[in-house]
Amino acid sequence: MSTICLKEIKKAAVTIKDRVIRTPLVYSSTLSRRFGGRIFLKLENLQKTGSFKIRGATHKILTRKKEIGPKGVVAASAGNHGQGVALAAREAGIHSTIVMPEWVSISKQEATRGYGGSVLIEGDSIQKSIEIAMDLAGKDGSFIHPFDDIEIITGQGTIALEILEDQSDIDMIVVPIGGGGLVSGIASAAKAIRPAMKIIGVQSAACPSAYQSLKKGKIVQVSAKPSIADGMAVKQVGRLNFDIIRGLVDDVALVNEKHISLAILTLLERKKILAEGAGAAPLAALMNGSIKVSENEKVVLIISGGNVDSPLLGRIISQGLARNGRIMRFLVRLNDTPGALAGLLQLIAGLKANVLDIHHDRFIKDGPLYVSHVKLELETRGAKHVKEIERELKAVGYNMELE
Q1: pTM reported for the whole predicted model
Q2: Is residue 223 located within the same domain as residue 174?
Q3: Could you count the other beta carbons within 10 Å of the beta carbon of residue 295?
Q4: Are 119 and 98 in contact (CB under 8 A)?
Q5: 41 and 189 in one domain?
């Protein structure tokens, strides 16, 4: 199989129509000016459960409802797939059990329970959790694979139908890839309707399973490094998915943690869109230059989900601001005399920087008794402003060290 029949994807759209949200396709003048062409965002972060996964899960459950055994459905997930299956099953009146790996966040466990799933924490990896879920399903339950499944892929393909109904002349769709279910469905529908369209996949460099498989011409398993794009951290692309990707996807780009983080921050600040790591990956590929947009191209970025743990979001924002020069951190050694600190702060105020945090330490082990250390965190306008502040402080004699 190298594609999913367009007729089946259109049938899936009818099946799930009243169970999912038709998410908006929005034009971004900001991103269009920055990268060229006309950039649109398909906002699956606004979908039920906060990601596209509800589409495939709903289609699978409604299509196979008569075949589902007394144990209901069983799935394995670290987040979005489990939540999608849990809600789809609850709305269909079916019990669901979601096996989640031991390292999954508490917030994702609770969200899955909130959507009606019975959560079982077992397995030190997604693959191990999948194996446990398949054994648990046995003869009396129905296992729902997160991506290597025809009905799942078909359900995800409904996104492409909505895009092309809203903008029939799209030239390129950029899609995040984990196991490959999303890109397989979108590529099958989009290429059937508009064969000349380019489908570009994006993967995290921390877990480039589809990228390496395409490069070697066969499915390979890769190691996974920690990534803020945990939704894409799938060590091996699905077999059905790889067949479709190899036949229909034009290219796969890689993005690193830095650009994913900056993409999340850019979407949040400039478009007021909360995207998780995988959802921001298409924008990250534009930001790192691995995907080029020509002047007249109409390009859609799939913002696949918005489920970010709050503590992680805080770290992403802080790190992103630091990386693009919006936050400046440094240490200054001051003579411990009256007015020294006030003079430093007055100079910083004159340079139009905002003090976010300050730590004044007068007790330095093995340091001179007349010297204090002041650690400052400033909000700045960007890298040029940072250079200006550094230059001015050094010009008047401050001994400083950038962090």
Answers
A1: 0.88
A2: yes
A3: 7
A4: yes
A5: yes
- Give a yes or no: residue 251 inside a domain: yes
Q: Which helix (H) or strand (E) holds 335?
A: strand 327-335
Domain total of the chain: 3
Confidence of residue 275 (pLDDT cuts 50, 70, 90): very high
The residue among 155, 203, 181 whose CA lies nearest residue 57 is: 155
d(CA 164, CA 187): 12
Classify 90 as helix, strand or coil: helix
- Each as own residue / partner, the long-range contacts of residues 221-227 (CB below 8 Å, 24 or more positions apart, any chain) are 227/257, 227/260, 227/277
Instruction: Specify the 3-state DSSP secondary structure of 75.
Output: strand
Within this chain, do residues 167 and 135 fall inside the same structural domain, yes or no? Answer: no
pLDDT digits (tens, 9 = 90+) for 169-219: 999 999 999 999 999 999 999 999 999 999 999 999 999 999 999 999 999
Residue 398 lies in domain = 325-402
Residue 9: C-alpha distances to residues 3, 5, 155, 162 (Å): 11, 7, 7, 11
